């Protein structure tokens, strides 16, 4: 029997949650025993070629590309788990939300008043920014939420193991206590 | 002038003082409120508490001319949005702002003009059947009046005659007059018949007639009066609830125009039956334009000896009536909130029990009755309980005023016997092709054609009269969303299930309407609606989810058709990218030019 598959992505995040995933130290050998890694920045696989069991989503959606990736994950993953503050609440990228996209960009690139020499840069290859940063669950259905900034390696490890065993993860308080 | 004859230092007249200050000064500054506080001898914060509650009071300077457009499902169906746009254009100022010459445009909740929408209030004067083409003329006239200092203050009694516009003022539109309320009356005949009986006999007659409250709840009037009369107290009060704020209702306005004497006489008979010396009419601010005429009728009745010392010639029965104006709050139609407002406080509902019949106005036994209920009383006393109880059904006696509005050929007031089916009513009004009828206002039920055979009476489809008809081309979800917005606006904010719940219900509906809700969202909507209904403190929150729950039940296919798939994107991506696209276009031009 083939191993269940795990896919991961980092949308509008800092890769901190992926770092925390790698922080499981020697248990990574066990992880490799448990899962096959599918689409993920860890193996640089860019697309799904089959359905996978678990999708690990870091970061919220700040641009069109994030939305398309997340939608692709929803379509291919049986279970989606939003990991970390950015996926759950928008996190640091969402600090721009109260300001508004136009003001944010024009202040940054053009001192607030664009003119012939100062304007918001544009390139057809840059994904278009959304009007605000959306947490993952506002964009697609999310099955589980793992809070933390980032969640600890232990919490990620426990969560993934439980999901893999087909159980609903019920993490002990100590693993989710941050103050 | 508003506020005249207010006895200084009378806390119960605080509303009048604040209304007068708002009307004369245009807004309520800290200084104004603290002057009122020291005059009345209460804490400054108590005055702020009241002043900050009502929609017609403002703490910041506003235009001296307030144009308020009624925003209801019916007004929107009739084109209110186009009318507002025309006014925005004529004034060159967007809704929610004030033009340089001091004219403020705003939406407001239903103003009791559902049969003549789109309608607006301009400093208390009502304008009906508006069309976009009317905007320029009305704005010109208002500007001239401001320049000549001829515009009445806000809030104020209004004066349709002061305007040359044909749209100023409103019609009564009594389409069908029945045998109880709109039959001809002789002033004093009901009162004379009552005074020939003992107060207990009057109450018994009302009880035997089977009269029940016309405001929606249907509490037996005779029982309410009996409870009030028997309760211990130093004084007893009778209050007429003319805070007709339920969207789509306008029967009380029409009664107060067409048969004010009947209402006053009912109030006087109630005063006699209860042993009250004073009757209070709580008139919603939106109807302030009726105030002058009502005072004239009261004056006439005093001259005829039907009010004042030795009322009706009865030694020891000195009864009079005072009209208290509200200041724009739907919740004040709830009787305990209404009593609070009458006492000069914010209109927050009280915990019950004790019920007003035990401890109401100023802590004394009080009966609060609807305008229409009181108008039935002189007829019952004059013609007898037996006559009255022969009309209607087993549990619902007499006639009921139905207010037809929306997609029907003959909107207006219909006096029909209880028990009429919705189909029969729709046939009378020329609304046979209705696809949905909202019965009994925002707090009522949205009925689908399969249920048009149901009877309008307390034992089947209970109604306070509002009957909004919607044709096949209307979007039911848009209508429900309007009601959800209404409740979110009108929640007094006291309890969490209502304050937060009404906003969440609205947001969930918006999501559904935009085709972004999933099946789980729908289940969540229904659960939340149940929580708001069960956990809210007063009738407002308890009935706020009714339009949602009844449409989920009666129009499930409409919700179903809007659902997205479980794996779909739940935001409107194109809308979310609009800002970025606009920025990119500008940048692309500059970049290419550079």
Overall, the morphology of chain B is globular
Segments of chain A where pLDDT lies below 50 for 5+ residues?
Answer: none
CATH fold topology of chain A: Rossmann fold
For this structure, the quaternary state is heterodimer
**Mean pLDDT across residues of chain A:** 92
H/I helix tally of chain B: 24
The CATH fourth-level homologous superfamily of the largest domain in chain B? NADH-ubiquinone oxidoreductase 51kDa subunit
**How much beta of chain B, percentage-wise?**
5-15%
Report the end-to-end length of chain B measured between terminal Cα atoms: 67 Å
From the N-terminal CA to the C-terminal CA of chain A, the straight-line distance is: 43 Å
CATH class of chain A: Alpha Beta
Name the biggest interface: A-B, 27 and 26 residues
Going across the biggest sheet of chain A, name each strand in turn: 2-1-3-5-7
Overall average pLDDT of chain B? 93
Name of the CATH first level of the largest domain in chain B: Alpha Beta
How large a portion of the residues of chain A is in β-strands, by DSSP E?
Answer: 15-25%
What is the name of the CATH superfamily of chain A?
A: NADH:ubiquinone oxidoreductase-like, 20kDa subunit
Category from helices, strands and their pairing of chain A:
alpha/beta
String of helices and strands of chain A = EHHEEEHEHHEHEHH
Task: Give me a quick take on this structure.
The complex is a heterodimer of chains A (179) and B (594). Chain A has helices at residues 16-22, 27-34, 64-76, 84-89, 101-110, 136-139, 153-164, 173-176, and strands at residues 5-10, 36-37, 52-58, 61-63, 77-83, 129-134, 144-146.
